[in-house]
Amino acid sequence: MQTSVELSPVPVTTAPAFRLTQLLLGLACYGTSMAMMTRSGLGLNPWDVLHEGVAGRTSLTFGMVTALTGVVVLVLWIPLRQRVGIGTVANVAVIAVVVDLVRLVLPDTHHLAWQSALLLGGIVLNGLATAVYVGARLGPGPRDGLMTGLAASTGRSVRLVRTAIEVTVLAIGWLLGGTVGVGTVLYALAIGPLTQLFLPHVAWAPKRRHG
């Protein structure tokens, strides 16, 4: 039986210690999962295909491109009248720093067993991390906000808008040299169910007295 999970933003003054810790932990794990997938060499999620493609064409690090992309997307929020939360800003900063730090620790590998472990571990961790930081209810990430904002302004479904956005960034990233592979397909199939699986266990609710 599917359980409904409330994810609307809650003021940061409510249980701040617990929720800010949850937010930062989730974002750190998200950046780690991105680094794991990039080092697997077996394919990335659409946005990371774009990030890798741009990084390969410039002198910027993967994390720098991630942050700059986040800022550009936030500019696109302006006509959509989306509200920036502390979680939105933290998303841009924390993920960019963590992904670069973890990439320094994880070298490229050409052993299929290790590549597969990095890919699968990265996808599962990404699903958990997404649930954790979204479950803190401190504001959406830039890309999620763009998706919901476009859906609201156009009257189209979130699924249709998300698909259109991700197909576009995937195509651009691939043309720029980003890695598309089995990991791209596996991520697309698994990330939704994984996030849904973890959310009921980590989403903050008033009945949980923390902070």
Protein model, in words:
By secondary structure, this protein is mostly helical. It has one domain (16-201). It is built from 8 helices and no strands. The chain has helices at residues 16-40, 46-57, 62-80, 86-105, 112-135, 142-154, 158-175, 182-202. Helix 1 (16-40) crosses helix 4. The longest helix has 25 residues, at 16-40. The chain is globular, with a radius of gyration of 17 Å. The two termini are 31 Å apart. This is Membrane protein YczE. Keywords: Membrane, Transmembrane, Transmembrane helix.
Helices and strands, with pairings:
Blueprint: H1 16-40, H2 46-57, H3 62-80, H4 86-105, H5 112-135, H6 142-154, H7 158-175, H8 182-202
Helix pairs in contact: 1-4, 1-5, 2-3, 2-7, 3-4, 3-6, 5-8, 6-7
Any descriptors?
mainly alpha; single chain; YczE/YyaS-like; 8 helices; Membrane protein YczE
| Count of β-strands | 0
How does the major sheet shape up? none
**Tally of individual domains:** 1
Order of helix and strand elements from N to C terminus: HHHHHHHH
Average predicted confidence as pLDDT: 91
Distance between the termini: 31 Å
Helix content: over 70%
Unreliable spans: none
Instruction: Name the beta content range.
Output: under 5%
Rg, rounded, reads 17 Å
